[in-house]
Write a structure and sequence with these properties.
Length: 456
């Protein structure tokens, strides 16, 4: 706020104080607009909280609406020699697995030399994978030490890793296939001089280098049927099942594939907890506090109250998706007085024991009769509709944002008028101060003259 230079110096009036008090009265409409702005911002924030909670609930419902989710399985093994992982395409079953031999990676060792700093010769080392593909040629210079040759092999990207083994009496260059199985066996040939110790024929297992471990495929039986694999991870033997062979077995290992009831329970409990979070968020925003005699930021908001009614009706409603579980309460979901949704674990366990009907109750989908849709689909569709571009919450947010923009424009216009009013008042009171100063000066002069006359 601009101030008058030496206000009241001529008149003795407290001009700044007068203008401040007048402006406080003028600013009352602006103060109301600012209060309205704060209220709108609070409403936008509360709608945002509800949208976030509804989005989380939609995700929980969508999971239960997915038929793939209900195919979630878990695998167990009776022996650590065989481990198992499953996907949604696996079917509950039991398998007997006997591991005859593990897949191995070919490893060869060149003859020993004095140390890793020794040189071998000059020429080209060629590495050819047994399973096919282009050969890899590695140029070896006469000054290359055993360590340098190792590094060149590792940099070639030939699917082979080289290392140096210090035996105590010398150093040997080791070459190992990066992957197991006979397809990943490799043959090495050389041209030049001094490099014969690096040669090896994977087919005949002969050469200047010796085989410390030949390449081998895994061999096992599954339910007495023989299987072989290039690796110890069997990914394409059973649908949706990955078996990892960790050791040879002396007898059959029992492997079970079963529905993952722990994952099912977790998802069903998350459905209830996310609904409860949503319900409590709505209640907090819309309730009336009798003690404070104050309503929530969204009390009476038709879009929010409407959503609350829809949710409660759906929780208490019935569905024809399952012939056994018509209501959520049949599966252990119980509505509380405060609007929260709790899970009766005993009833839920019984429902999980009838998995096909529980699955239908949540994930069934009908293109002709909405009454046959499962609860998962119903809640997902409702939440998606409300959160959509044309949904009630999106429209409410858009309306509040537009209202906030109008409020800001009103504040800007009001502030402009206030600035103009203050300038006008400052100008008027400056002129008044000047005139009163002149009158005071005249009064003083007249008083002095009268005093002189009286003395004469």
């Amino acid at each position: 706020m601009a101030t008058i230079s030496s206000p009241g110096i001529g008149s003795g009036l407290d001009v700044n104080s007068i203008i401040t008090q007048l402006m406080a009265i003028e600013k009352q409409p602006l103060t109301k607009l600012q209060g309205a702005q704060s209220k709108i911002q609070t409403e936008i924030s509360e709608v945002g909280k509800i949208k976030s909670a509804l989005s989380s609930f939609r995700d929980a419902a969508a999971k239960l609406a997915s038929t793939d989710f209900w195919r979630t399985t878990t695998g167990t093994s009776s022996n650590g020699a065989v481990s198992i992982a499953t996907s949604s395409s696996a079917s509950p079953a039991q398998y007997s697995v006997d591991v005859t031999s593990l897949a191995k990676a070919q490893t060869i060792a060149a003859p020993a030399v004095a140390s890793s700093t020794a040189t071998l010769g000059t020429g080209t080392l060629t590495i050819q994978r047994a399973g096919g593909g282009d050969p890899f040629n590695i140029t070896i210079d006469g000054t290359d030490t055993l360590a340098a040759i190792r590094d060149k092999i590792n940099a070639a990207g030939a699917g082979v890793t080289a290392s140096i083994l210090n035996t105590g009496t010398g150093a040997r260059l080791m070459m190992r296939a990066n992957a197991t199985g006979t397809d990943n066996a490799f043959t090495t040939t050389v041209t030049g001089t001094g490099l014969d110790g690096l040669t090896f024929n994977a087919a005949t297992q002969t050469g200047g280098a010796t085989a410390s471990q030949p390449a081998a495929n895994a061999a096992a039986t599954i339910n007495n049927l023989p299987v072989t694999s290039q690796s110890n991870t069997l990914t394409d033997v059973l649908d949706g099942v990955t078996l990892t062979l960790n050791a040879e077995t002396a007898g059959p290992v029992t492997v079970d594939v079963a529905p993952d009831t722990d994952a099912l329970k977790k998802a069903l409990n998350e459905f209830a907890s996310s609904y409860t979070t949503l319900a409590k968020t709505i209640v907090t925003a819309t309730k009336y506090d009798a003690a404070a005699k104050k309503g929530g930021p969204l009390q009476g908001d038709s879009s929010i109250v409407g959503l609350q009614s829809q949710l409660r009706a759906m929780v208490g409603g019935s569905s024809g998706a399952s012939t056994v579980f018509a209501r959520l309460s049949d599966m252990g979901f119980e509505m509380q007085q405060d609007g929260s949704l709790t899970v009766n674990s005993t009833k839920l366990d019984k429902a999980i024991a009838n998995l096909p009907e529980l699955k239908a109750a949540f994930s069934n989908s009908s293109t002709t009769d909405a009454t046959l849709d499962g609860f998962g689909k119903r809640f997902r569709v409702l939440a998606s509709t409300v959160l959509g571009v044309d949904g009630s919450l999106s429209s409410r947010t858009d309306g509040l944002n537009a209202k906030l923009q109008r409020n800001q424009k009103d504040q800007d216009r009001m502030q402009q008028r206030l600035d103009e009013t203050q300038k006008r008042l400052e100008k008027q009171y400056t002129a008044l101060d000047t005139q009163l100063g002149k009158l005071n000066g005249l009064n003083s002069y007249v008083s002095q003259q009268i005093t002189l006359w009286n003395k004469a």
